[in-house]
Amino acid sequence: MASITEYYAGKSVLITGATGFMGKVLVEKLLWSCPDVKALYILVRPKAGQSMEQRVSHMMKCKLFDRVREANPDFHKKIIPISSELTQPGLSISPEDVEKLSACINIVFHCAATIRFDEPLKHALQLNVIATQELLSLAQRMHHLEAFIHISTAYANCNRKHIDEVIYPPPVEPKKLIESLEWMDDGIVQDITPRLIGDRPNTYTYTKALAEYVVQQEQDKLNIGIIRPSIVGASWQEPFPGWIDNFNGPSGVFIAAGKGILRTMRANNDAVADLIPVDVVVNLTLAVGWYTAVHRPKTTLVYNCTSGGINPFHWGEIEHHVISSFKRNPLEQAFRRPNANITSNYLINQYWILVSHKFPALIYDLFLRLCGQKPQMMRIFNRLHKAIGLLEYFSSQDWEWNSDNISMLMTGPAGYKGAHYSI
Ligand SMILES: CCCCCCCCCCCCCCCC(=O)SCCNC(=O)CCNC(=O)[C@H](O)C(C)(C)COP(=O)(O)OP(=O)(O)OC[C@H]1O[C@@H](n2cnc3c(N)ncnc32)[C@H](O)[C@@H]1OP(=O)(O)O
Ligand SMILES: NC(=O)C1=CN([C@@H]2O[C@H](COP(=O)(O)OP(=O)(O)OC[C@H]3O[C@@H](n4cnc5c(N)ncnc54)[C@H](OP(=O)(O)O)[C@@H]3O)[C@@H](O)[C@H]2O)C=CC1
């Protein structure tokens, strides 16, 4: 049986979300560990005044690609950008590109999504659900497709305490929701969003749950694998320890604590902080692609890519490590000496917000005004409070994820414990 590296040799791979956090690491890892991969087709849109070509060229200059660049200075020739805006009909891929992709793609990794928690429902639905449907339709036109791998989230079913590696019935039939929202104006949608998302905390988890169902519906026509990572953090080992390029999830909170801005946050000291390094998720993604294509499981397999069941780490421990590490290695231009406390008590947290956040911010802004400068600290705290308000749901409770399919991949007859794909 082909090893993972052997499997990808000569294959053409399609990746959505390749310009994102996880997508970039996936591209790098494929180029590094599977040097004989034929081509990586990446769907990219122009953004922030940069053309698709400029964005890709900028991305390939990033430090993340140093080891690949050193091994093969011509590595960029394997990356083929395809212009695509996922929120448009047909993903706005040109007919010529559709032909090209249909003729050559062997495996699809669907990473693109909006991961904003406060995304208006219509937009989250458009990107996370409708674009996924469009991609599935495109996949069905691919003559040599061997596997379709969808990246979901471990929190798609966060309204449950115990989460198995199964697709749960969707909160609503996606087709009906899409049809209903089509004629509603944004104001009405905003008003009914809390009723629709029900016991989920945000539109992100809600639309990711719907997307899983939409993907599963195609299991008779496509060979599908679904990966559910928990909270994806900086790299553990590859391409080098500690790589991250965003403030999503806890990363922004850690930096705010390191700068001495964040002093208090609502979290449960004893709840499991289910963090998972991005390189571990990417290794698993490549292994799942290989397993799905080679073993062709009869039904869609779901992989809960979580750490709490194997190596539980708690928010209380995180607080300790984050603060002591920033005390040892202080950040530049810190507002105050780092010292943050987490508490599960609402009132205590409100007290410390007043004393340690709002009061110093007022004083500092007053000082800035007296110096003739624009006040800014209260504005920073307001943004921080909005961000942590959206994260508290995840840091205040525990979930239990079954990860039998991950164990099967690691230790079963197909065990993929290869040097390049450790998880
Ligand atoms: C020591 C104590 C330890 C305890 C620690 C507990 C942590 C407990 C985390 C649990 C985490 C669960 C995670 C679920 C796991 C998924 O399933 S993964 C999906 C994860 N998705 C996210 O994390 C997205 C969350 N972020 C958002 O939804 C939006 O960024 C927010 C928070 C609503 C802010 O929206 P906005 O006001 O429009 O602002 P946005 O343009 O996004 O950013 C404005 C600025 O704030 C910064 N920023 C964005 N997010 C953050 C943030 N989280 N923090 C700080 N700054 C941020 C941006 O970088 C940006 O900076 P500038 O470029 O302006 O300098
Ligand atoms: N980060 C995390 O903690 C977790 C992430 N996940 C899942 O992993 C996947 C990747 O997440 P992550 O890398 O962190 O997310 P990022 O936000 O870093 O990347 C999202 C990607 O999707 C692309 N995208 C978004 N909107 C569009 C659009 N309209 N048209 C074309 N492309 C678009 C972005 O492109 P552009 O650069 O042009 O904006 C980007 O490449 C997602 O499916 C997410 O749900 C799951 C669990 C945790």
Could you walk me through the main structural features you see in this protein, from its secondary elements to its overall organization?
There is one protein chain. With 423 residues, this protein is an alpha/beta fold. The protein has 15 helices and 13 strands. The chain folds into 2 domains: 4-230 and 274-308 and 398-411, 3-Layer(aba) Sandwich (Rossmann fold), CATH 3.40.50; 241-273 and 312-397, no CATH class. The protein has helices spanning 4-8, 21-33, 52-60, 66-71, 95-104, 121-140, 174-183, 186-197, 203-216, 250-258, 278-295, 315-328, 346-370, 377-395, 404-411, and strands spanning 12-16, 39-44, 79-83, 107-110, 147-151, 162-163, 224-229, 231-233, 264-266, 275-277, 301-305, 341-343, 400-401. The strands form 4 sheets. Strands 3-2-1-4-5-7-11 form a 7-stranded parallel sheet, with helices on both faces. Strands 6-13 form a two-stranded parallel ribbon. α6 (121-140) runs parallel beside α9 (203-216). The mean pLDDT is 94. Bound molecules: Palmitoyl-CoA and NADPH dihydro-nicotinamide-adenine-dinucleotide phosphate (NDP). Palmitoyl-CoA binds next to α10, α12 and α14.
CATH fold group of the largest domain? Rossmann fold
Distance between the termini: 21 Å
CATH architectural category of the largest domain: 3-Layer(aba) Sandwich
Could you give the order of strands across the largest sheet? 3-2-1-4-5-7-11
> Uncertain segments of ≥5 residues (pLDDT<50)?
none
Helical residue percent band: 40-55%
Q: Given this structure, which CATH class of the largest domain is correct?
A: Alpha Beta
Mean pLDDT: 94
Query: Percent of residues in beta strands?
Result: 5-15%
Principal-axes geometry comes out as: globular
Number of domains: 2
**Main sheet properties:** 7 strands, parallel
Total beta-strand segments: 13
Q: What ions, cofactors and ligands are bound? A: Palmitoyl-CoA, NADPH dihydro-nicotinamide-adenine-dinucleotide phosphate
